[in-house]
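[Solved] Which block belongs to which protein?

Original post:
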Amino acid sequence: MKPTSFDYTVPSTVGEAVALLADEEREAKVVAGGQSLIPMLNMRLARPEVLVDISRIPELGRLRVDESGSLRVGAAVRQARAAADTEVRGGWPLLAAAIEHIGHPQIRNRGTVCGSLAHHDPAAELPTAALALDARFVITGPRGTRTVAAEDFFVATFATAVEADELLTEVVFPPLPADHGWAFEELTRRHGDFATVGVAVVLERDAAAGAVRSARVVFSGAGPVPVRLPGAEEALVGSDAGEEPRAAAARAALAGLTPSDDVHATAEYRREGAAHLLVRACTTAWERC
């Protein structure tokens, strides 16, 4: 199929982009990598009157570690660039691993980190990684700039805290503790597919006690937004992440997750898969602490 007709604009500043989005006379959509939007246009699931291409706004192409030690990823930064960056791989390896699970190289070469986050497919990798890494989202609109925490950013399937007249300009990942370990696991039918279910785990180790000081456990494909599971985290904190704590965390996943049935899998299959992935992810994360 072919998309309906639309105007195409290439602003050179964030202010110009926001002004185009704030125009109430015509519906506008943001495009950077286009790996989600272009198929939707072709299938006429989206029918904007204006496409606002932000890929040539210089400040949105920045990928840097700031003075506080946080990683800042601009809205035009490609996924492949972020995954290959030495500072990302050294300081935020879970983010790099999550990106490497996305589709195929051709998709990662064009798709942007912020684009996937703003699109928010709940089966996608980056929303889950963002919640596990306690990311913050910088949103700019006609009323100014605001920052939204990851737990408040994802609202529902394909819906986020970004309003129609606003632009997600940057995602910020705070520095991780020195004694941390991580793991990212997915269950897929074949390489490159969206995950049937996935999990991201971040553990912080108390070196003196030889135990887990803190834990973050987040699932994809288990609800309309990434699902953080406090019950599984509580089972791990204070333990050596051994067999019994991992089993307790898996039981918490079986009891606490409420995914839906669909054409790809039943809810029970997703729960069982999530519990299995969690045990494996906890083992890997603890080994990496």
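(Second protein starts here: sequence line, then its structure tokens.)
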Amino acid sequence: MDKQTVTLSARLGELLLNRHATVTCAESCTGGGVASAITHIPGSSQWFQLGLVTYANSAKQQLLGVSPDVLATEGAVSEAVVVEMARAVLALADADISVAVSGVAGPDGGTEAKPVGTVWFCWMLRDGSPIARCFRFPGDRVAARAAAVQQALLGLIELLDN
């Protein structure tokens, strides 16, 4: 794991520990990278219970209750889908904060509207409104996934810092 990701994970763990808070995640294109980064930090069992990798649309529907209609109309890489993912995993884990990630890591699968490197995120506090943002990360599949993991962690840190 690269140094910046470890630094972000450690900072997140420190914030969660100080606030006696827990985090959870629902991932698609990052394939468990966010959960791996969080659990890389010793003591993470104090602030992390579960993360789900819902790579396929059927998994998003079955495990997180993402609406088939939303998937059909908006696509898996959309604000509507990550909001549903973040809300569902937050409730499932009974956590204080969640992040959901869905994107097009490549090298295939991109479109003109959603080119390779397009990733949607949603961060949500238990008692808050969802914060959804879309990013376009340059580079190949490995670079896009690594950048997405770091952005997921950064968003969690920013939400806890505010």
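Accepted answer:
You had them paired correctly. Confirming on the second one: Residues 3 and 9 are 10 Å apart (CA to CA).
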